[in-house]
Amino acid sequence: MELQQLRYAVAIAEEQSFTRAAERCFVVQSALSRQIKSLESELGVRLFARTSRKVEATPAGEAFVEQARLCLRAAERAKVAAAAAHGDIRGALTIGVIPTVTAVDVAAVLGAFRRGYPEVGVHVRTGGSDEFLRRIAAGELDVGFLGLAEGVTPQGVQTRELSRERLVAVLAEGHRLAGRRRLRLEDLAGETFVDFPEGSSGREQSDLAFDRARLRREVSFEVNTADLLTGLVRQGLGAALVAPSVAREAPGCVCIPVCDGPVRVEYLAWDSFNPSPVAQVFVDSILMPQPKSPSPNAATA
């Protein structure tokens, strides 16, 4: 059994097509088919059910592909670790970023990291904190920037708290409460809300706050991005609770502190068991940034 055969099997399972898998692996389809046939013969099981229109992994194929992914990741880590032992940081780094990160300038961080380690292939995925936690624990994601409700502890990963902040109310400029200097949750209980999807960590912060205050609220608009959320607020379609930095960047809206509003905690999360050398270097660059060089005009002692 060879690593190339494992790559072919994973590609077929994900593409559900021998043709697309061959294109993805930069090999002619006949060669890929021969390798899979040889692999099936060696294993004594059929990995894929084939018709002229569709390819699906058999139960044995699904079990094999799951372990093949782990083997391929282990092989990649071995290669990266060997290079890192000689001070050569290279390989792939996949980072999950929620759309409302405020604790760090993600673009600046990634730019500095790429300039410092040009041999590392950096990949960014957007999504929700819950998804990132699952993918880090499963070895599918190296690092994630998370936003969770206060009191919710991430499980199965290693984390470092980056910041915590109380969410503020965002209202259209013409809203009846727009002139208030401060609000309470009960002032907003009768409002229509714009928020992230139900069950997401971004939504959980506000849901928990209203539940603890024993207040009901109506969420009529569920969105996945901060820009669309504030855009709907600007149109007068609802109110929202967001991080202060997000609220300040929303044109046509006002942001008002909510004294008993939800608190959001941002974390950096990574594999608690066996982070790759590349992931560890990236985490260290966030948690232990290098001190700035003194200005050439600075006074000397």
Would you write up a description of this structure?
The chain has 301 residues and is of the alpha/beta class. Helices cover 41% and strands 22% of the residues. It has helices spanning 3-15, 18-25, 29-43, 59-84, 106-116, 129-137, 185-188, 201-212, 226-234, 244-248, 277-287, and strands at residues 48-50, 55-57, 91-97, 120-126, 143-149, 158-166, 168-172, 192-195, 218-222, 240-242, 253-257, 263-270. Strands 4-3-5-12-6 form a 5-stranded mixed sheet, sandwiched between helices. It has a 3-stranded antiparallel sheet with strand order 10-7-11. It has a two-stranded antiparallel sheet with strand order 1-2. Helix 5 (106-116) links the parallel strand 3 and strand 4 (120-126). The longest helix has 26 residues, at 59-84. The protein is elongated and about 75 Å long. It starts with a helix and ends in a 14-residue tail after the last helix. Residues 291-296 have low confidence and may be disordered.
